[in-house]
Amino acid sequence: MKAVILASGQGSRMGYRSKPLLKVAGRRIVDRTIILLKPHVDEFVFVVRSDNREIEDYLEKNWKGKVKYRVVKNPVPERGNGYTFLLASEAVGKERFILTMGDHVYSKEFVEKAVKMRGLIGDFRPRYIDVDEATKVRVKDGRVYDIGKKLKDFDCVDTGFFVLDYRAFEAAERVAERKEVVELSDVIRELKPEVSEVSGEFWMDVDTPEELKRAKKLLIRLSVKGRGDGFISRHLNRKISTRISELLVDHLTPDQATLLAFFVGIASALLVFRNLAVAGIVYQLSSVLDGIDGEIARASLRTSKFGEWMDSVLDRYVDFSFLLAVAVRYFSFYQKYGLGEKGMVALVMFALMGCVMVSYSTEKFKASYRKSAYECINVLNCIPGKRDERIFVEMILCLLNLPVLLLAVIAMLGNARVAATIVAVRAWDVR
Amino acid sequence: MKAVILASGQGSRMGYRSKPLLKVAGRRIVDRTIILLKPHVDEFVFVVRSDNREIEDYLEKNWKGKVKYRVVKNPVPERGNGYTFLLASEAVGKERFILTMGDHVYSKEFVEKAVKMRGLIGDFRPRYIDVDEATKVRVKDGRVYDIGKKLKDFDCVDTGFFVLDYRAFEAAERVAERKEVVELSDVIRELKPEVSEVSGEFWMDVDTPEELKRAKKLLIRLSVKGRGDGFISRHLNRKISTRISELLVDHLTPDQATLLAFFVGIASALLVFRNLAVAGIVYQLSSVLDGIDGEIARASLRTSKFGEWMDSVLDRYVDFSFLLAVAVRYFSFYQKYGLGEKGMVALVMFALMGCVMVSYSTEKFKASYRKSAYECINVLNCIPGKRDERIFVEMILCLLNLPVLLLAVIAMLGNARVAATIVAVRAWDVR
Fold first, then answer.
1. Fewest CB atoms less than 10 Å from the CB: which of A12, A144, A152, B409?
2. Among A341, A349, A370, whose Cβ lies nearest the Cβ of B324?
3. Chain A residue with minimum CA distance to B430
4. Which residues, 6 or more positions from B375, have their beta carbon under 8 angstroms from its beta carbon?
């Protein structure tokens, strides 16, 4: 399948000449479109204004040799985007193709559903856009009955994403013979294609700086969905980390964010030797920052397996460092609690083991079953003892200056969670 | 595709009436055939002697409702297995089908290659059978030219596995019109089917008690192949564990073997408080036993994701227990080495962390990349520090009565291996 990207718009309200080159959450819109459509498309056809080489130059610099694409020039962008569309006709030929707008931002989920559909992709429950500004569609017998921004009575909203064939060009040609300015909605009204539903997924057209900001914010928020977060993460950490991610997404790569959280974590361990309360707070801060790499990665379509792997390994060493620091600094407290040095060393080892094994048991689950334990076994989301929860408790105990209790709680919480995981996995496996 | 299983033989040399019911490495031959063919077949057709209900009863008890099968009765097994085959004709119909012998044992690798082939599946480099006893095949123009046990000049050996169609029944019918006793080789000689090659994989027909023993031994040995074992495992542990597995495969489930190794491991940790040398030897013994669950599971086609998961989690707790025991018993040795109690507690924690993280980093790799790190990154097979190697070194240091050095070596070996893994994964990822 080919994909036609209409990129002849002015973007006048943005103070930019080429809207597809705008960065939304760390990625230019055109890169988003290419990355998301690439697995489904064998050639891209960009229709650009002939008086502006920006997009052409950008594609040549960044995508040449990586994807197959063609640039079609539009000398008369003032004739409307329906006419722009018609210009792609020759480059596309007879086969089925995807048509989408160069200034629209789509989520991966949207694209993966939409590419399997046909006709106009309509959103029947738009959640992320201003419906007043949107192009509305009236549907009858599964096909477009009417389309326009001012429709009072409508069924869905035009997402700017279509799966069409040569008949769409024929319709555009018929309209172009009648009219000088041809809007895409004129073509769709003429064609009356079928309407397919992809509702509730994220997509947006970016017309104003406010919408750009909004799109960024939404992409970061959506990057958190379904992450198997613990209680503290859901109700505290993510509320802070998403705000930080919004600020940093255009400036930091996910790998840099991973390293940032790692170094803050190591710093918190070193701080144990200075001030336990401050150390606890900085540790909790590192736990907040730990969410950022993933948020930035998903929002900017930069997730990588190496990033996921490295993040987990470094997290374990941060947790290790903090426990190590607490154990070393407060080792002699065994006298205070009547533990004996042997009891204390056992406590420390149980704490470290519990802490690492919670993660080990779920990662090994994923390695064995090739599925996320949190998605398969719901009860694992309810048992406490996840990293965000442990670190929060550790902070509280640091603030209360109870380092030995901290070790005891981690030892209990961690190993009890592993024991519960064994029971839960067994029960799930033989179900 | 259907599968025809010829099961009318006498098995006179085995002292059994139904050879398909023989247990080979913990599984009856008929169960092996069903388990391995199940993913590729929608119905099984068993042709059995009408004077023996054993197979029919067994299938009804164990497979009814689990796979679709049909039993065809052969009132005249003395007419030969070519005639037995002909009796399946009605149950099979016109479509392509698999034909195989009820007394043949195949490996998973063999079956997965063979089901994609056509005609007679020939082994051009038989490694596991006695060629003198085998049915030989002369090939010409890609087809069977001649077939028989006594062929002097031959190209491959008949594996008893065929992918045929209705023309094979027609050939059998023609032979049956001419002859009273119809061997399958007569049918093949008449049909002259194409010959497909699956060479060097394990398959065997089991005719004598010696062959039964040999098949068991080979299945156990083959279960070890490509396991990403460390040096000690390859050269010591597996040599012992496979022999134990041969003894136990008919008596122990893989889960029981996992628990056995676990309890021996925990016992070794408890022994630290009695006698370090004995503890070290028992720990090494548990490392040997740790191979058995996997060997039994693979040889008896009983691998399970839960088994794999549980085994790994329990291994971590065995290693933890042993280090814990050493740390607790020998904690006061810090004085001897001038470490200070803080130094000692740090050493203990580094040892535990290194020990767990070697496994964590490779399991997390599998979770992220959905591939085995050992298969992707060859250098990981060369860096020392795998579990089998660590435990062997621990045993040596126990025998030398050097518990603190043991902790230091594990701390170094483990964490250095993790560091090396990070470098290796990074290099591999950006390749």
1. A152
2. A349
3. A306
4. B228
